[in-house]
User: What shape does this take?
Amino acid sequence: MQTTIAPTITQRLFPKTNHLVRDALLVIGGSLLVAAFAQIRVPLPFTPVPITGQTLAVLLVGAALGKNRAGLSMLLYLGMGLAGLPVFAGGAQGLAYMTGATGGYLVGFVGAAFVVGWLAEQGFDRDIRTALLPFLVGEMIIYTFGLIWLTIYVGDMSSALSLGFHPFLVGDAIKIALAVLLLPGAWKLVR
Assistant: This one.
């Protein structure tokens, strides 16, 4: 039995564009969107993990680009930061930042974008009643990688939860709500 993959919003917007050129531009654009949202940063004095707009951008990139382009976009984003471009939160860059307290969240972006993209290809991003699932799953993936990494970094799970999970629940709930509202709304405009 063959599974039908639904077109993503970007495929619907640019159906006649050369696929290679379109895909390259979308991958680059997705990584730059996450880099831009990373600059929306609110440091918290009690934790090395800042509040950023990155997770919202990762969720939107995943849903808009589909699994392969979104995953590649996040790999490009990490590569840009590793190469020294100031794309991480607050203009940070480099290997030291990537292996610091927030490194697990950064790695989680790749998995989250891929899975959100896959769920979008299944049509979950089309309707406000189903759009919550991909974004909630994406956040859970980011938190899973981030908290495992942070637990190793700080030495225990209890500290990791108080530094990298509890302070962010309300903000991430707001980001998920925005994503849930934005994508189905964008689909209505495209239709």
User: Anything to note?
Assistant: Residues 14-184 form a domain with the Arp2/3 complex 21 kDa subunit ARPC3 fold (CATH 1.10.1760.20).
